[in-house]
Amino acid sequence: MGCRLSQLDLSIEAGVSARHLSFVETGRSRPSPELILRLAEQLGMPLAERNTVLLAGGYAPAYPSHELNDPELAPVRAAVRQILDGHNPYPAALVDQHWQLVEANPAVALFTAGAEPHLLTPPINVLRLSLHPDGMARHIRNLPEWRTHLLKRLRQQAATRNDPALYELHEELRGYPGGDVAVPVRDDAVPRVVIPLRYRHGDQELSFLSTTTLFGTPLDVTVSGLAVEAFFPADPATTATLQALAKPSAGTG
């Protein structure tokens, strides 16, 4: 999990004696489900992996996993819809734990326009759409920099979640053209604090800052894997262009 906790540190954080934790580690003592969950919390395990560890210990899973259209997740759907609608005319999309597109606002069409049909056939993987040469990649002006950023993030997620599907996706995307580069050092008077997405739209270059919104304290496996990826204009010209694109065309009446 990459926490780098010693056994003593972990025992203190989990509120259990180092001796008992040692017995658990060596198989001399069987952990209770409560101890498993406390240790998993301290190690930052994803909810799905906590369920897997509980099952391996002979216990029932602690966290449910609903479908997004189940009645229990209606408040989640409503919150997501409010975020997506409120972010228009700037692009925003809801993705699941494997970067599959769940929902998006109309402004995301800016990124999907011109992509080949095979990348837009559900389930749509937004990272594949972003980096595939038949998708957004051909319009990204700083592709090596943006590609490096996405691959690093994906690799970290795969390691944190110990998810074979994310490792497989990382290997696939790493094989796409574009090149890896280190984040360049800028000599500008105003230093850059985030990596922008520089995207060509017609004869214009649009610049975006991206943010990720997660649900706080999730208790459902599905909800814990959801994220809203939102893009904000990084300069006045991009703001003006996106607002102009969102205006309805004048009627011919």
UniProtKB/TrEMBL annotation:
Pfam families: HTH_3, MLTR_LBD. It comes from the Bacteria. InterPro entries: Cro/C1-type_HTH, Lambda_DNA-bd_dom_sf, MLTR_LBD. CDD domains: HTH_XRE. Residues 5-50 form the HTH cro/C1-type domain. Gene3D superfamilies: 3.30.450.180, lambda repressor-like DNA-binding domains. GO terms for molecular function: DNA binding. This is Transcriptional regulator. It comes from Micromonospora arborensis.
